[in-house]
Design a protein that fits this description.
Blueprint lengths: L1 H64 L1 H111 L2 E2 L7 E2 L1
Antiparallel strand pairs: 1-2
């Protein structure tokens, strides 16, 4: 019977070994299945992202399809703009010339400003002189008014003196002729 137990022990050993292999294979299969599911989930997320991006790519692709037309238009614009280069150079030359003139004008304006300041100073002096002359004229007018009043009095006195000289001349003529009649206070007459 000893022999009999040996094959049974060998069979049990083989069954245990087979069971262990099956368990290991199942465990590996579960791990691989788990990894596959995880990778499938990751691929699914990436596919969603690609789908979203793909919509943008479709829009961008439409623009790429129009690129030929865009290039044609750009070439046409370039051909149209080429004659403008000479005109642009002329505009630049004129702008530089204007800039030079503006600098010259600015210098002239500075000179004019200095001259104007000098004129302003001279005008202040002239204004002071004019005020002084005005004050002098006012004084002359006052003096003339006084002189006219004195001249008027002198004229009146001269008129009186002439009247008295006329009378004295007549009386002297009467005295020379020999006779003054009537006495008193210049009331006499020549006879």
């Amino acid at each position: 019977m000893t022999k009999r137990w040996r094959p049974a022990a060998t069979e049990r050993g083989q069954a245990t070994f087979s069971l262990l292999i099956v368990i290991v294979v199942v465990a590996i299969a579960v791990v691989l299945l788990q990894r596959t599911a995880w990778h499938a989930e990751s691929i699914n997320k990436k596919a969603g992202t690609i789908a979203e991006t793909g919509g943008g790519i479709n829009t961008a692709t439409a623009a790429v399809l129009k690129l030929g037309r865009t290039n044609d238009l750009a070439g046409s614009i370039l051909d149209t703009a080429k004659p403008l280069e000479g005109q642009l150079n002329e505009v630049i030359r004129l702008a530089k010339s204007i800039d030079g003139l503006a600098t010259s004008i600015n210098g002239t304006a500075g000179t004019i400003n200095q001259t104007a300041k000098g004129i302003n100073g001279t005008a202040s002096t002239i204004l002071g002189t004019a005020r002084s002359i005005n004050d002098g004229v006012a004084q002359i007018n006052t003096n003339l008014d006084t002189t006219l009043a004195l001249a008027s009095e002198i004229k009146r006195d001269t008129g009186n003196i002439l009247g008295q000289a006329d009378r004295a001349s007549r009386e002297a003529a009467c005295i020379n002729l020999g006779g003054v009649t009537g006495a008193g206070n210049g009331g006499g007459t020549c006879a």
